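ok so for the tutorial part 2 we go from a plain amino acid sequence to predicted structure tokens. step 1 is just haveing the sequence, like this:
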Amino acid sequence: MLKKNSYQLECLFLLGVFLVSVIIRFYKLPQNLFFGYEQGRDAQIILDICKNYQFKLVGPKTDLEGIYHGAYYYYLLIIPYFFSNGNPLAASFVLILISSTLPIIAYFFAKKMFHSISWAIVTAILFCVSYKFIIFSRWLSNVAPAIPILALSFYFLWLFQTEKKQRFFIFAVVCAAFAAQFEIILVLFLSWSFLLLWITRVVSFPKIKTCLLSCFFLMLIFLPHIIFNFRNQNTLIQTALLSTQALNDQQKPSFNSTLFAYSQQYQRVFQRSLSLPSSQDALLITLVIICSGLFLILEQKKLRAFEIFFLVILIFMTLPLLHFPQQIDLDQLYLGVGIPMILLAVLGWKALWQKNWGKCLLVVQALILILGVSQSFHKLRTNQDTFFITVQEGMNYADQTALLKYVHQDAAGQIYRLTPLTIPYLHPEGWQYLQSYFFPNSTDDGSKLVYVVIEKQVEPYWQKKWTEDLGKSTLVEEKTFGQLRLEKRLLQ
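step 2 — the prediction. this is what the tokens look like for a chain of 492 residues:
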């Protein structure tokens, strides 16, 4: 009876933490959703798959020309886009539901690692309020689904080593392969991590049969990439080699500056993962507290702390980036680092809890975390520290929709022309998609009634040039919607 009650309480907690995660991640998203040209491009591709059966073998492009993420992202969002008739908020909500499973996965991972339900609850709550994972889940992109799948891969790898069951290695490889479909750089990072875990003997090498089965599933998951590669004369392999060579040929910064940029990224990841206050003092105090706990573990286990080495290797899964310094500043490449970081932090805190002086330190740590979480909620309210909004700063879904609705009402039934002046330049896909979603069949590029949308970072020179390219026109009205400007013009 007691066991049944504890199981029910566990289920109730997990349901609660899932619902709270969804609520936090969807908070003010209808106002602050970022819908740029990549989101518009992907949404149109998904609708083409739904309605025109234009199936894809590969997904969105990466920052390296000719290298693509997997197409699973498109097929994942077919259902929300299809049943909502293309509503971006429906697609974003589905990604949030998937991302909100992360605290549940973290709970079971921590329960196995720490052998403690109490600390598993602490871990789940930390993942629930982690600003890093909140922001990733609010990003309408292929990256968001990779994070919980990656956490599953780490969890199964842990189970493989601790429970000595070969099937867990296969599960770990399958999850790693699926995660890499959503963020292709994980192929490099996970290959490096698995190799290092084997070399250091932190994780045992699986049996030959297990390896063969893992390779089979790996090939199966990457089959669309393989077919695409053969259909296009080995273009994926050739472009990958050429892009790597091009990066090597570029003038690289000094190793010291590369290492500094890399360490700065890790500092940001650490602060965002634990939702720490934006203060160097809070960062240093937290590091001292965690390291004190980890030192206790190392002292007790005489440098054979398997948990620490396992998590540290996963934390530095991105070390290959030191060879590609031009890519170091891309925040999305560190998507999986926060998972072992939080687990390592909780491991250190758990060790401190055994000491009276350690409990005093944990009181200080709790106060820091409470302050940090309150700051994180403020950033959510004000849409700050959102790493994926870079050159399109200040653009949000509420302003975009308000502008489009005003244009449609102002046109009063006339066919009009919508001309977005965008950042990056000449990428109107986001605006084109939203226009066709909200007000289909209401625009014509030949119309003399023109509404020019000007994004914040567009330089005056290009604005003037592109406006002149429209032909002789009269400025009728000018309005602003947040950081967006709108010009109503009549062509002569």
